[in-house]
């Protein structure tokens, strides 16, 4: 079968580390099933794999990808991408994504735990459905499990164009929150308004009112602004650091305002089912930046690295 995979990671040229070609069809372990992939999407986790920061288990070549919309026995599904694992004290058993265990999904046929197949909303295209498993689940957990997004709440989303950011904007707006986004790009700010944001500001700009919840995916470039923009008793939820992983913390703001800063990664199977139901019930259409065939996965990785995308970078598989 054809798949997008990494044979030799490259820290200098991760997009160039993508290979597309024939790989063996995987065998399904007990409790798993073989499914046909219709569409997938890229995430920063795939870039980390291409760079060699994360190393999948087992012998290569290692198929990349965590997000997939699939067909099994004539029915359409989206795949929950987190393997069952001992939580080790965490609130989500999220230690291992499918590609980390050697089961990447950017391939014509994959194997997944049967219990991880969640019915695909009929109103979504294959590409839109493939947006949900990683970035959208991350945003859902940040907003509704780690914080209490809803009517009357002000949500600040840093960095308007990324997968998690566009998901958080659409989800929070659908929940009745007032959403403020930031971006250095005027074009991305304009597009964020179309997703449901009430205001779109230049990066670092002063908010008209302090936020109840801040969705922080950028890291050092925006973290000080996130803390300064949070009201007393508010919450900053951090799920990543596209500009790095070390940021100074203004302790006076932290304790004087009694701000909660918490981390969040992915979500549970129950949260994924709730996300899919929420998207379906509210008629939300995930923002798709662009879609390529399998041969274009390297180009999509390059677009992610350049920070040019608005929404998810998708792949049409079959």
CATH architecture classification name of the largest domain: Alpha-Beta Complex
Quote the distance from N terminus to C terminus.
Answer: 11 Å
The count of domains is 2
What is the highest CATH level, the class of the largest domain? Answer: Alpha Beta
CATH superfamily grouping of the largest domain: Medium-chain alcohol dehydrogenases, catalytic domain
Main sheet, how many strands, which sense, barrel?
Answer: 7 strands, mixed
The count of strands amounts to: 16
For this structure, the CATH topology of the largest domain is: Quinone Oxidoreductase, Chain A, domain 1
**Please, what is the average pLDDT?**
93
Report the principal-axis shape. globular
Protein structure class: alpha/beta
* Beta content: 25-35%
Low-pLDDT runs:
none
Please state the oligomeric state of the protein chains shown: single chain
Provide the gyration radius in Å: 19 Å
* Percent range of helical residues: 25-40%
Continuous helix count: 9
Helix-strand pattern: EEEHEEEEEHHEHEHEEHEHEHEHE
